[in-house]
Design brief:
The structure holds 2 protein chains of 2 kinds. Chain A is an alpha/beta fold. Chain A has helices at about 75-100, 110-115, 120-125, 150-165, 185-190, 225-230, 235-260, 270, 280-290, 300-310, and strands spanning about 45-50, 105-110, 130-135, 170-175, 195, 205-210, 215, 260-265, 295. In chain A, strands 1, 2, 3, 8 and 9 form a 5-stranded parallel sheet that branches. Chain A has a 4-stranded mixed sheet with strand order 4-5-7-6. In chain A, strand 1 (about 45-50), helix 1 (about 75-100) and strand 2 (about 105-110) form a beta-alpha-beta unit. Chain B is an alpha/beta fold. Chain B contains 10 helices and 9 strands. Chain B has helices spanning about 60-80, 95, 100-105, 130-145, 165-175, 215-220, 225-245, 265-275, 285-295, 300-319, and strands spanning about 25-35, 85-90, 110-115, 150-155, 185, 195, 205, 250-255, 280-285. In chain B, the strands form 2 sheets. In chain B, strands 1, 2, 3, 8 and 9 form a 5-stranded parallel sheet that branches. Chain B has a 4-stranded mixed sheet with strand order 4-5-7-6, sandwiched between helices. In chain B, helix 1 links the parallel strand 1 (about 25-35) and strand 2. In chain B, helix 4 packs across helix 5 and helix 7 (about 225-245) runs parallel beside helix 8. The chains are: A alpha/beta, B alpha/beta. At the A-B interface, helix 7 of A face helix 1, helix 3 and helix 4 of B.
């Protein structure tokens, strides 16, 4: 296999320097930053993000297939309809659970899904929860090398759709598959997006550099996602619950010493909305919300407190 | 291409000369935090892709950055608590990118060994001269930033050539004589140190660095649940500790600050450390110290025993 030899650029390191090997944000360890204070002396913020997604049956998978997408030859009815189950049934189970424990979620919604589920959008509008944009659909990734005009159009279509169907001015963004292009941060900031959740390199929000400034990264843990734990790793539902509770305990202890922390849980109605899984989410929420130092808030509100601490 | 790299001979685990660790310890315990830097957009190596998506591959890059921005301090606090000095498997470009982390480890007298320049620069396709230059750069970088003469090697992203071990030993000798380039973590064939055959006949050893206990292998490859990982660490220790009563064993936990330090995983690691360091007769040490002790006291004895037993095996095969 070693017949293809490497040329000399493999021993050259033009970006070997202090800080990162790019200019998107500054190198700074979490421990070097000023402590964040949450309201009423709370220590740990619970941020639950519910991702509402549309997976097209005629998936193109270019330049890479979406996580959770179709895997079988067309028509892959099993994956299509099971994802749809989340938006028809699972979401209502999730809403009940979140309400029971007084959790104030954020909803990340595909622009196309908003067009396809007016009843659900009306319900969310009435509830008044924070909505963030989640791209057009799960098969329309933002990717390195994507023509910038195409991407701008895709972002605008997504934001227009969500604004039309939810009545909210959307301030947050989560790219499908948490992948974006070299232009995405600039484009998002130019369209009025205040924060995005694609980068999982931190446990607290931090400023992200764009042409216009005005963009923050608000990390949404992948390692604690239902999809990551249950579907990628095939861990048990009981282990999902334990992992969430262990994270809660650890972050609460760290917050006592180092200032406010966020427990960021990304959940999917097509995963946790299943009858055999919902109870484990409920138990985890019961554990978290029973801790005296915990409060629940949507992402945009948490970012506001973090900006004050700067 | 060889059917067998020839680095070591068959050497049965039973009836070996007895190893005793300093202070009469029966088990040498070391933790090897991999402190790595992955580039966002490295030059493409035709033999192995660095990332699954076109650059910027945010998912993979950002979780590894999490390790350095958030995870390192958490892991270091836990190691401090149990009196463990890390033996760092270092992407040596990190000395330039994040010198703050290097300083914190220096203050604690941790060991630094080479894990290449970047974990996104693979050995595959390198000529002998190129691999030699990469290894030399990494050893010099460690010396320049820490004053340490790099003793050990773990190839970047476990990407090897047939000459990796030879080149590391030779470059170590050229730069610092016998004080550098004398152990490898790249082989997983034993629970005790073993002498390694190299083309320059240097006194060079392999130190156990368990792939099975490696958090990334456990969590990412084998998809182990966090609390089960903690149980595996304790089970691994229990058996090696028991066997260490007969002849000294080595237990290594290789870690990554972007795996073990996630909020839902630290508890498992911490409980395992508390359990292990709570035992008597455990030598809590570094890779370098294990290799030095072994070379000074057991290397010749091992060579002789291996010669006798592999000679016997060869005779059996011939017969």
């Amino acid at each position: 296999m070693n017949d293809v030899k490497l040329d000399h650029c493999h021993l050259e390191y033009p970006l070997r320097r202090h800080g990162m090997d790019h200019d998107w944000y500054d190198w700074q360890m979490l421990t070097q930053r000023s402590a964040v204070s949450w309201p009423k002396g709370k220590k740990l913020a619970l941020w639950v993000n519910v991702s509402l997604q549309f997976f097209p049956l005629n998936q193109q998978g270019k330049p890479f297939p979406p996580p959770g997408g179709m895997t079988m030859p067309y028509p892959d009815l099993r994956h299509f309809s099971l994802r749809d189950y989340g938006n028809r049934v699972g979401i209502y189970r999730l809403l009940k659970a979140l309400d029971k424990y007084g959790v104030r979620p954020t909803f990340a919604i595909n622009g196309e899904l908003a067009q396809r589920t007016p009843y659900l959008m009306d319900l969310l509008k009435e509830r008044g929860d924070e909505i963030i944009a989640h791209g057009w659909n799960m098969d329309r990734p933002h990717y390195g090398g994507q023509p910038v005009d195409d991407e701008r159009e895709q972002i605008r279509a997504t934001l227009d759709s969500l604004q039309e169907k939810t009545g909210q001015v959307v301030k947050g963004w989560l790219s499908p598959g948490k992948v974006h292009s070299e232009n995405t941060p600039n484009l998002l900031a130019a369209e009025g997006i205040a924060y995005f959740c694609d980068w999982v390199n931190d446990d607290m929000p931090y400023p992200f550099r764009t042409d216009t400034g005005n963009l923050w990264a608000v990390p949404l843990s992948t390692e604690l996602e239902d999809q990551f734990i249950l579907r990628n790793n095939l861990h048990s539902e009981a282990s999902y619950q334990e992992q969430i509770e262990d994270a809660c305990t650890f972050l609460l202890q760290e917050a006592e010493r180092s200032g406010g922390r966020i427990l960021a849980l990304n959940i999917h109605p097509w995963m946790l909305g299943q009858p055999h899984r919902i109870a484990y989410l409920e138990r985890a929420l019961a554990f978290i919300t029973a801790q005296p130092g915990v409060f629940s808030a949507p992402a945009g509100e948490l970012l506001g407190y973090c900006k004050q601490a700067q | 291409m060889k059917a067998d790299p020839g680095f070591y001979d068959y050497w049965p685990y039973q009836n070996r000369p007895k190893i005793q660790w300093p202070g009469g310890a029966r088990l040498a315990f070391w933790v090897a935090p991999n402190i790595e830097f992955y580039e966002l957009n490295p030059p493409a190596n035709p033999h192995r892709k660095a990332w699954p998506q076109p650059s910027p591959a945010v998912p993979g890059y950002s979780i590894r950055d999490y390790g350095n921005r958030v995870g390192h301090m958490r892991q270091m606090a836990v190691l401090d608590k149990y009196g463990v000095r890390g033996s760092i498997s270092l992407s040596t470009a990190l000395c330039d990118h994040h010198p703050e982390i290097i300083e914190l480890c220096k203050e604690r007298d941790w060991e630094f060994f080479s894990h290449g320049i970047y974990n996104t620069r693979y050995t595959y396709g390198m000529s002998e001269a190129q691999e030699r230059e990469m290894i030399r750069d990494s050893i010099l970088s460690i010396h320049r930033h820490t004053g340490q003469k790099c003793a050990g090697y773990l190839a970047p992203a476990l990407s090897h050539s047939e000459l990796t071990l030879d080149l590391f030993a030779e470059v170590g000798s050229e730069l610092f004589g016998d004080d550098a380039g004398f152990y490898t973590c790249d082989l997983f064939h034993d629970d005790q140190p073993t002498p390694i055959n190299l083309r320059n006949n240097k006194r060079f050893v392999s130190i156990p660095y368990s792939l099975e206990m490696n958090d990334t292998i456990a969590y990412v490859v084998n998809k182990v649940e966090p609390r089960r990982y903690g149980q595996m660490l304790r089970d691994n220790f229990d058996r090696l500790y028991a066997e260490g009563a007969e002849s000294g064993t080595v237990m290594c936990i290789p870690t990554h600050n972007y795996q073990v330090s996630c909020p839902h995983r630290l508890r498992a690691f911490e409980e395992a450390l508390e359990y292990i360091t709570g035992h008597s007769d455990v030598w809590v040490t570094t890779g370098r110290e294990i290799a030095e002790h072994y070379r000074a006291h057991y290397y010749d004895m091992a060579r002789q025993d291996i010669a006798e037993k592999s000679g016997w095996a060869a005779a059996e095969v011939t017969a």
